Amino acid sequence: MRILIVEDEPTLGQQLKNTLEQNGYAVDLSTDGEDGHFLGSTEEYDAVILDLGLPEVDGLTVLGMWRKEGRNFPVLVLTARNSWSDKVAGLDAGADDYLAKPFQTEELIARLRALIRRASGNASSELTAGDVRLDTRSGRVTRAGEPVKLTAQEYKLLSYLMHHKGKVVSRTELIEHIYDQDFDRDSNTIEVFVTRIRKKLGANVITTIRGLGYSLDDPDEPPRE
């Protein structure tokens, strides 16, 4: 899952970036509203963490522009403001959740996980496909109850496919959502990761849809468009 952080406080922004990366996310960091708006308008994200008090362009304006442009990724608003009117303004502008500073990092990550699950139509923190289970809270993957060890990139790819179970996901979409902006993206590595995951979880866990991409499905269920 790929996250955009738009936060002008350098220490906090970098701390959040490091923490999210340690939790398996690909993360881009912007420090002002103008650059943050550009990234959100031109790159693909699974969620955005947006500070309201930004230089250049304030967070509410950035959020409003994204929504007018049809960018519908979930947005978690961060702000030092704590009045009910600021919360209402953020939610009315298109925010999906609100967290006032100071906050606990664990709560932010939990809220972020919930936003991403809901955006992909998953209510539970545990994602399943046949006997494969992925716990988004712990990052633990099991097959038939037995733990399976995945590399960071294998986990990111599997997690994205499980969040979009039953849908055909193109190689380009996978690249856009499992790598951050600065990563040297190579489409050939996607097939390598898929091959490795199949060896660990079973040959049929991920289906290749020729000319379109990949699909992860429950047994006996055809992939959806």
Could you explain the architecture of this structure?
The structure is a single chain. Helix 6 packs across helix 8. The chain has helices at residues 10-22, 33-42, 59-68, 84-92, 105-119, 152-163, 171-178, 188-201; strands spanning 2-6, 26-30, 47-51, 75-79, 97-100, 126-129, 132-135, 140-143, 146-148, 206-209, 213-216. The longest helix is centred in the middle third of the chain and has 15 residues, at 105-119. The protein starts with a strand and ends in a 9-residue tail after the last strand. The strands form three sheets. Strands 2-1-3-4-5 form a five-stranded parallel sheet, sandwiched between helices. A four-stranded antiparallel sheet has the order 6-7-8-9, with helices on one face. It is an alpha/beta fold and 225 residues long. The mean pLDDT is 89. 40% of the residues lie in helices and 21% in strands. It is built from eight helices and eleven strands. Strand 10 and strand 11 form a beta hairpin.
